[in-house]
Amino acid sequence: MSLQLNHTVLDRFLRYVKIDTQSDPNSKTFPSTEKQKDLAKVLVQELLEMGLHDAHMDDYGYVYATLESNTTKENVPVICFCSHMDTSPDCSGKGVNPIVHKNYQGADLVLPDDSSQVLRFDEHPELKNQIGNDIITAGGTSLLGADNKAGVAEIMDAVHNLVNNKNIKHGIIKILFTPDEEVGHGVDHVDLKKLGASFAYTVDGETLGTMEDETFSANAAVVTIKGFNIHPGFAKGKMQNATKIASEIIAALPKDNFSPETTSDKESFLHPLSVNGNADETKINFIIRAFSENGLLEMQELLEKTVTKILSGYNRSKYAIEITEQYRNMKVVLDDYPQVVEYALEAMRRSGLNPLRRSIRGGTDGSRLSFMGLPCPNIFAGEHAFHSTLEWVSVQDMQKSVETIINLCMIWEEKA
Fold first, then answer.
1. Count of beta carbons in the 10 Å neighbourhood of residue 59
2. Where in the chain is the domain with CATH 3.30.70.360?
């Protein structure tokens, strides 16, 4: 049937992005920043006002809520929709000034709070599909927060429309909003028993009509260099500077492949994130990404080989490499539940879209949720140029995401 929706997604999005929810990778608390709970409290209140009487925030900052079934069918699987509330530490999330550029006609958009920040038509190919749409950016001094407040607003608007359209039949729908996704801890403390869902969808994807059922597998690596330090005035022929050794290791990594700036599609990479320390001891933090376990091992062997080669020239220095698992390719799990993906593709088709099933060179909360027992692909939210001052989303793409979520709820009820 044709959906007649009363959209609130724009108003919600403009409210949510003004709340600073930036997470902190160096924090030892959970959530990593208390300010993420500011948005969580707003969402809980709005859900309660919509009639989801169990809506609450737990001690960790997660928001849980249940939209009860309105169908007579008793065997409809419980479906969850999930988005994350935090924004990236890579770019300021403070003082976001959202601007709606109505009826976009293909011009470069100069952001008013910093005229050096220009969203250029030629540099963002997806803009060609937005002619006539309403584009939302920030002012130029912060990120927008479409990653992932677009998804949050879309889920909230979908709930609003389901509550107010009793003729749209659906089973039990669970809502989950997570903190700290951007720093890799989005589902560390999620309570799947309390959530009680059989399948889930993160709403955290990019381009209109895309559905991602495959992610990188991810490890982190820390290389610790223990040099030989001595007073610099008496160091000739003796000092072995750990910081310089670390620099040599980074300089020795491949220049033409195996790095984010030289790879695409399903190519693996080894990426130095930061260097911290002094002449005595220095640590290099890496992330390792590949679509397969063999790819991860290949990157780890490259790292070991590079470090060993450089350290062979320093007889008084030592090294250690610590590898930590981060997340795994969710396709391994999702291949056992093909209906989860197929229903998402059908929901997009019912929304008038030509769906595109693809892999993502990254990860979502759904990567880890899938391996925790909750199969969870990722559907589009419409966010673009995330983690930057040029981040943008279109109103019309957000509305299509809302429509897709509602169609998904209907399909699970129909197929039961």
1. 8
2. 217-327
CATH 3.30.420.40 fits 9-215+329-415, yes or no: no
| 3-state SS, residue 29 | coil
217-327 under CATH 3.30.70.360, yes or no: yes
* Residue-wise pLDDT tens digits, 325-356: 988 999 999 999 999 999 999 999 999 999 99
DSSP assignment of 262-288 equals: G--TT--EEEEEEEEE-SSEEEEEEEE
Task: Label residue 352 left, alpha or beta by phi (over 0 means left) and psi (-120 to 50 means alpha).
Answer: left
Rg (CA), the chain: 23
Distance CA 207, CA 373 (A): 27
pLDDT at position 364: 83
The Cβ of residue 230 has, within 10 Å, a number of other Cβ atoms equal to 16
The pLDDT assigned to 345 comes to: 98
Could you tell me if 84 and 368 are in contact, meaning their C-beta atoms sit under 8 angstroms apart?
no
The predicted-structure confidence for 176-207, as pLDDT tens digits, reads as follows 999 999 998 999 999 999 999 999 999 999 99
pLDDT tens, residue by residue, 275-332: 999 999 999 999 999 999 999 999 999 999 999 999 999 999 999 999 999 889 999 9
Rounded Cα gap, residues 151 and 84, in angstroms: 8
Active site (catalytic) residues? 86, 181
Question: CB–CB of 93/145 below 8 Å?
Answer: yes
Q: Which residue in 139, 131, 138, 136 sits closest to 104, CA to CA?
A: 131
Looking at the chain, which residues constitute the CATH 3.40.630.10 domain(s)?
9-215+329-415
pTM value is 0.89
Q: How far apart are CA 358 and CA 210, in angstroms?
A: 7
